[in-house]
Each structure stands twice: as structure tokens, then as C-alpha cells.
Amino acid sequence: MNARRFYHKARGMAKGAYLTPWHDKTRAKIMIIGFLANLGYGNLSFTLNYAMATEGLVHSLAFQMARTALLAFLAIPFVFWFLERYRSRWLLMIIQLVGLSLFFVDKSSGLVNALAITVAFSPFMALHNYRFAKNQTRDNRGNEVALNSYIIIFSYSIGLLIGGFALQYGYYYPAVLLGSLSTILGAFFLYYPITSKDNFAKVRSLINYNKPSTRISFFNGLFTVMSDGTMPIWMEVMGISPLGAGINMSLRPMIGMLLTPIAGWLIQKGGIKAGQLGGGAMIAGWLFLAAAQPFPWLLAFGMALLTFGSNFVSPMEVGRWQKRRSAAATMAREVVIASGRFPAYGASILVSFLCPVLYPALGLAFSGLFVLGMRPKRKGLGRRAL
């Protein structure tokens, strides 16, 4: 009897995680377009991160810091301002194509490339997050957020592998071109005018350190930079080939497929436990990466644990903001998470070039800060959306 009950419960969880989110045609469209666009963005991001690392500390630092600041503090707000006032997806596409053209101005310039990727990518990022937030259900929200996050991780990870292949064989510009076009087309097909007003005024009221969502996103910005944004830089400095780096960073899909129902169930129950579990896995992953320097075969185990952690933390973190289903919440999240990413990029890039053996130690410290910072200050507060 217990076995039968367990079977039916597991079957229900799997159905809610993998099948039910596809029942709504609009939500299915958003997830499919998100898959294709993030596939290209993973390729684009890895190509630029690794290529800027080969240019040296100054160019790599300029690229990452400028991209983070431009995206969150200028580009995302501009996109929503544009969507409020204009009704032309073609004009938005032209703006993105101008950004794409900047990639061919100066291959070695961190600032030029930061501006290019920001203009080409930010409209898709804003529209995808906003449209998905608007098309969630209340009863199955946790599973929908978890599946969408897994789809993003899956496609982005495959994109990393494609970027590794492209750089390994010298196809820098084709990788940049195809990656940018995927995000431009993604924004074109997801275009949606914003009808709500006073979004910018609402952003400030949503950001408060006493709110768990603000702290979770800030500290998540710290350690996701280490496990994603600057990991290709560290690998390049450590002498790992582009293909090898791409393979190691594309482990995430294999683990995420199994964890999606569990992550969805935890998010639906409140989310904090998913973050605690993910933060603990991150800490263990950095310990393995520290041990991998004398024993390189441990690198895959460390990356797998970081992947395990991100598959729980990412949907929990973004889901708390998306529950509001508003443009203001989308902008507020970007500001908060960028506030964590900005110092993390600076510290991790400096460590990668000046003392790479300490990179796992820095990641361990940031993961520890996340585990401590995400705790709610009052009992029961961690179960709220914001």
C-alpha cells in the first residue's frame, strides 16, 4: 500500500513538473523561444568571456564590470520604458542589430563588447522574464518556475559547449553572430507592450534588505558569478582549453533533469529549503574544486556539485520575484542581483589573474555568505513572495 501511494505521488510530481506546464499554449511558446534564444546566448557569453580572458586582466575586467552595470542599471529599465511608449517590434529589432554590429568594431575591447552584448541581449532578457512571470498559474507555479529555469540552464549549457567548439577551431565571429541573432529573434517573437504605469516608482519600494528576496538575490548574484560568469576566465588562466572548459561547464543539463520535480515541489512549499539545499551543495562543490588543483580529475565532481546547487537556487531566487507578475519586480530583481554581481566580478577576475589557486576559496566564501544572508529575519517571512 505504501509503495502504491509513493508511486502515485511520484507520478503526480513528475506530471506537474514535466507535462502540466506545457498545457498553456502561450507559456509553451515562451519556454520554447527561451530555449532557442538561451542556446545562442550561452554560446555568445562563453565566447566573449573566454576571448576577453585571453586579452588580459584589464580587458576582461572592463568587459564584465561594464556589462553588469549597463544591463541592470540602464538597459533593462530602457527596455521597459521603450515597451511602455512604443508599439514597434521592428524598431526594437533595429536597435538590437546596431548592438550586434558593434561586435565587429574592435574584437579586443572589453567596453565595446560589453555595450554590444548589452544592446543585443537585454530586450530578450526583459521580455522573457516578464512574459513568463505574467503567464504563471498559482496552483502549479513552483513546477512552472522550476521547469523554465531548467530549460534555461539546459539550453545555456549546450550553448557553452557550442562556444567551446567554436573557439577551439577559430570560429569567433560566427559564434558571436549566431548567438546575437538568436537573442534578437527571441525578443522579436516575445515582443509585448507594457500597459501598466509607474513601474519605475514601484521599483524602489520593492528593494529592501529586510526582505528575504532582496538578500537572496544579492547574495545569489555574488556566487553565481563565480560558478558561471568568471569560471571560463579562471579555466583559461589555469590552461584549460576552450573545448575542455565548455565540456566541464555543460554538465548542468544531466543533473537538472532529475532535480526539476524536487525543486518545483520545494518552491511551491516556500522555497527557502531549496535555497538551503542548493547553498550547501555549492559549498561542497567549491571544496572539490580546491582539491582539483593537485588532482584535476576532481574538477568534474566539483562542477557537478555546483550544478546541483544552481538547479535548486536559481528557480527559487527568480520565482520569488516572478510571483508578482510585474515589470517593476523584473527591474527590481535585476538591480538587486547586479548589485551582488558587480563586486563579485571585480574580486573573482582579479583573483583569477593574480592568484588563481585562491579562486575556489573565494567561491566558497561567497557561497557561505549566501547561506547566511538568505535566512529570514522573522519567523515565517521566508515563505512570502517578497
Overview of the molecule:
With 386 residues, the chain is mainly α. It contains 16 helices and no strands. It is globular, with a radius of gyration of 20 Å.
Helix fraction, binned, reads: over 70%
Record field, number of beta strands: 0
How far the N terminus sits from the C terminus, by CA atoms, comes to 40 Å
Strand content: under 5%
Query: What is the overall pLDDT average?
Result: 81
| Number of H- or I-type helical stretches | 16
The helix/strand class is mainly alpha
Order of helices and strands: HHHHHHHHHHHHHHHH
Give the overall shape: globular
Instruction: Name the poorly predicted regions.
Output: 380-386
**Rounded to an integer, what's the Rg over CA atoms?**
20 Å
